[in-house]
Predict the structure.
Amino acid sequence: MSQVKLSHYFKKIDKMKFNLNQLKPNNLDPSNKSLSDTDPSQPQINHLGIDFFDIRIEFTLLTRVEFVNSEATSCYELPSLGAFIRVFNRGRWYFLSTTKVDQLDTELADLIATSYKLPPGDEVFKSPKDSPPFERLIPQGKGFYGISLTQKMQLTKSYLSVFSTVANLKTHRIEYSDTLKKKAYMSSSESFFEYDVSHGGIVLRVVLAEECLVESGDSSGVSSGVTSGVTSGVGGSASGNQVSPSEFASGRQEDRFEDGHYIYASEFVDLANRQAEFIESFKEAQKFIHAPTIIPGKMGVVMSSQVTGVFTHESFGHKSEADLLLVDPDSIKEWEIGKKVGAETLSIVDCGAHEYTSGYCPIDDEGTLAQKSYLIKNGYLVGRLHSQQTAQVFNELPTGNMRSINFEYEPIVRMTSTYIEPGHLTFDELLRKCDTGVYIYNYRQGSGGSTFTIAPHRAYRIENGKLGQPVRISVISGSLFKTLENIEGISNNIVLHSSAFGGCGKGEQAPLSVAMGGPAIYVSQMQVS
Amino acid sequence: MKKYDLLTEIEKIKSIKTRNGKITSLKNSFFKKMGLRKFVDGYGYSFSYFGDILADDFVKNSEIVLDAGIPIDFMPLAEFQSNSFVCKSTQTLNFEKWEESIQAIEKVLEPYRERFSLEGSYSVNQKTKILNDENKNSLQSTHLVSTHWYSIKRNGSPTIGDGYFWNATLNLTPEYTVECLKKILDGYDTKVTLPPGDYPVLFAQHHDAEESLFEKIKSSLVANNYYENAGLFSGKLGTAYFDERFNLVDSNMNPSLGVFAPFDGEGFIRSHSHFPLIEKGIIKNVIADQRLAKKYKIQPTGNGIRDFKSSPKAAFNRVEVLPGEKSTEQILKSLPQCVVVMMSWGGDFTDIGDYSRPVEFSYLFEFGECVGRLAPITVQSNINKMFGCELIEISSDNFFKSGASPSVFMNMNVLIN
């Protein structure tokens, strides 16, 4: 492997190298870091004696600010700079991730040498054809560029005033988070891209509690006979002795509700002056403090657009990731294109091209442009999410879904913005169709598999086709296939939800920024417990 | 000179992925991460960098941004001693031999490939942490974490995954892996049914058994939640809340499972690796870092958990149940019926402690014999009941005889999905 041959590439990489001084936010002028001014007369290298390689360099600047009970507990910026190299040779992938970006030439040469030392494998991958260079950089002064840590701290502080309006408040917390990520990529097939994304958000979390009287005891399994405690010693410890477990069984009980509300923006200025949203949200939260727990069982469920989003992502989105089908060729028959999997009104889409959302991914980590991919159209399976390799195996086209969470990891097939397309019913018509059941407004977490699960945050009863009182639910769950069949109503409005906190997890990689949403939907039967 | 402490983390990782017995990819990683806290006039300022930079350059380049400090008194590293902790087992690990072990394991799994597709992931991570200050006092730890993971799919099944097996050990032995996979796979094709009702339940996979079930207890026992009355068990220190056989500790040393924290992020060195949280059912302690300890006038507990990018925060190392006397096998043999959960996702608590968890894959055991696989179910209970009146027994080992927490058998309400 000649370093002379590689010099063409590393000239470009040199332009991505920053020192610590350059990493200060005010110096992050994207126009200074463009790779597009490379001399076009440079010879293009497309043969290095191996099947394929690519290099992705990422610079990320994360900012986090946190206040717990009005006290600043975190305030920092985290710059990171590293690279991921993939080599495909003799039927196997060889990966390297490193923070030593000054040594990528020797690292690549070593990786190629390794690929000749080991016996060949059985993987199949054809080097993709070259594609036009892609460049999309955020203009200077836009997004989260040029915003100082002090400004971010002050913005976060401005939301402390919300808590003075919240009744029954026990503890509170504010988290500010933003991410500015810039990627540069090149491959042995002469694909090249450079782009950046930035977004941020603020979340306010509260614990609400209020004492109430209970008529008769329900000790919920509290052990009896021992009592009370003197706190002292290490870490707030107790040596034991006297307690009155009957404090739960008689008279008084403290009911609680943990709530949170977040906002998202792709421009820093859009995070300011939104206190009213939080105040309104925490007013509604008061209704949940004394909410009863649901009696478990199967019932009708209406999901808000946010919950529809997580349902779509967890239940069907992951199922559409083609790399998960590689392990078992027999399962492809069960998941054949053209198979009917849902009602005729059901269409599901994944698309990375939605700007200003957390699912925005204009080009994936191997150079495939974002596109609108229908996964289900009018109830029929019409597509799946692909990398270059899975598209080759399935004889289909790549979809721009090969993504990694950062330079530490190899890209794998992931979602971007996933949603159900709108139907024709109003929200009230959905409630009437359900008649009796529960309405899930938002959620704490969701997870997928053949059985998917959503842990609701706020839920309400539906009685006589109308929204009723708040109710506590641990989880709703269902089988993917049955639930798709049981979607009996889809509302006519669609919302795509973004977040700067958390994201999608797959294998060892989490969180990945995605967006999800859709209309409200009515599912005729789900397990609610 | 300004006072500071500097945390440097260096990771060297090797990993191999396999699909149906064949290696599909090999990966090497090298990461350097640095986190600095400067203390000036009652404020702490954090700086971090994930990239390759010299420590002196990093310290020199970190400039204080006014208004971005966290009110905190300078707290010197709790204990200074030039230490280098090296996990002994690291010296016996030879990566090339390790590759041979992987090939051997994949070979002995061949009989299963007729019915099951298996994806394997093996990795070894050498982690070094160095915590030092402006006077070059230094604490250092180095250890290896080796994990391997199998994702299992029944051939032709329409699902994306039908089971999994995870383990952390430096000694990859084909015999042990096959023994564990037999427990997961052998009864898979025999289907049995169960009417809804109350049954003994055991979570066999330690991820399920440890992470989700203890969440409410853990969040309650962090000092600020506890003393601000924000936790479910706030005000209950000293209360016998659970069954007296239930003992829960925070462990900072379990190298085989990747827990190796001889000192915390504030340089605090614990005298005992097991810090009791619940003792004989009595809520015994809450955890605190130095900041919370000062605020609530208690002692720090060695739980100032810190990674390079943030200030230390009170958090748990690894919460473990202490073992009982009988083995898992003995307890299973004594139970007419027991639901043994092999794969489940997404369980959660309500804010008042009600718990529910959908189960994709579980076996029904009768007097210790696996009689078959159950259709998807949901198990449901309440935190007080699970570790209180509905706790059946805690075993001396766990279902897979790994280094994870012992088995906790409890009665739960089983709903049929």
